[in-house]
Specification:
CATH topology of the largest domain: Phosphorylase Kinase, domain 1
Structural class: alpha+beta
Helix content: 40-55%
CATH superfamily of the largest domain: MucB/RseB, C-terminal domain
Largest sheet: 7 strands, antiparallel
CATH class of the largest domain: Alpha Beta
Shape: globular
Distance between the termini: 40 Å
CATH architecture of the largest domain: 2-Layer Sandwich
Radius of gyration: 20 Å
Length: about 250
């Protein structure tokens, strides 16, 4: 059973997801997350909740009349900042909502499925400054970067000639352990490929999770899990390149 998150770190996890931590604060939190399964589970749960709310919420286009009225009045869009105390009522409402959310998260609960954790990690990586730890299209630069950071050597390949160039890599977490995340691009779409040691061999299988395509397979002593907003057919093409590539 996954332990509960640390009470003194729970609000920091939320603040980091909202982009409110400094570079130093974010780095310190990442060090804590490396050794705390409870806080990692909280982070994954909050990311998954954010994704579900974003995808489930209804979307309505503003009528032309309203657009014209707003343009005529030059109404500026609302600006949200981290200094909520300037607006006491807003601060109270936001604080109460955050407290309720963290209180619920502190209660013991089931760990999110591995694919949901991967989608949550992909969404988090799309935030500015989170995509790569080692930005490089050179696999001979990306692969050695993981030395000493994880206890295995992930295979790294580049398929720029086939339309899937390597963007870089980062350290991420799945199933309570650090794993290699390789980042690729397909036109304007990003692909996160999570790689970790696993026995057996399986053919690529695609499914949808929270509005994203997920493809999993095992080969050559490694498990692979690819996540993207690409169509499943293109993500399967990416997986077949991996299985047939050098």
């Amino acid at each position: 059973m996954t332990p509960p998150p640390c009470p003194d770190q729970a609000l920091l996890v939320q603040a980091e997801l909202d982009g409110e931590l400094s570079v130093a604060g974010s780095a310190a939190l990442q060090v804590h997350l490396e050794g705390c399964a409870g806080c990692r589970a909280l982070q994954a749960g909050l990311l998954g909740l954010s994704a579900r709310v974003r995808l489930a919420g209804p979307r309505h286009a503003a009528p032309d009349r309203l657009r014209a009225m707003l343009a005529a009045r030059a109404v500026p869009p609302p600006r949200v900042t981290g200094r909520l105390m300037r607006r006491p009522a807003l601060a109270f409402g936001a604080g109460a909502a955050l407290a309720a959310l963290v209180a619920l998260a502190l209660l013991p609960g089931p760990v999110a499925p591995l694919e949901d954790q991967a989608v949550a990690g992909h969404i988090r990586a799309l935030q500015p400054g989170h995509l790569t730890d080692v930005p490089s299209s050179d696999r001979h630069t990306v692969r050695p970067w993981f030395d000493g950071r994880i206890d295995y050597a992930p295979p790294v390949r580049d398929f720029a000639g086939a339309g899937f160039p390597l963007v870089g890599g980062r350290l991420d977490y799945l199933g309570g352990r650090p794993v290699a995340a390789l980042v690729y691009r397909r036109d304007r779409h990003l692909i996160d490929l999570y790689v970790w040691p696993a026995e057996g061999e399986t053919t690529p299988a695609a499914r949808a999770r929270n509005g994203y395509a997920v493809v999993t397979w095992r080969d050559a002593g490694m498990a692979f899990l690819a996540v993207s907003d690409l169509e499943a057919a293109q993500l399967l093409e990416f997986a077949r390149l991996w299985r047939s590539g050098p």
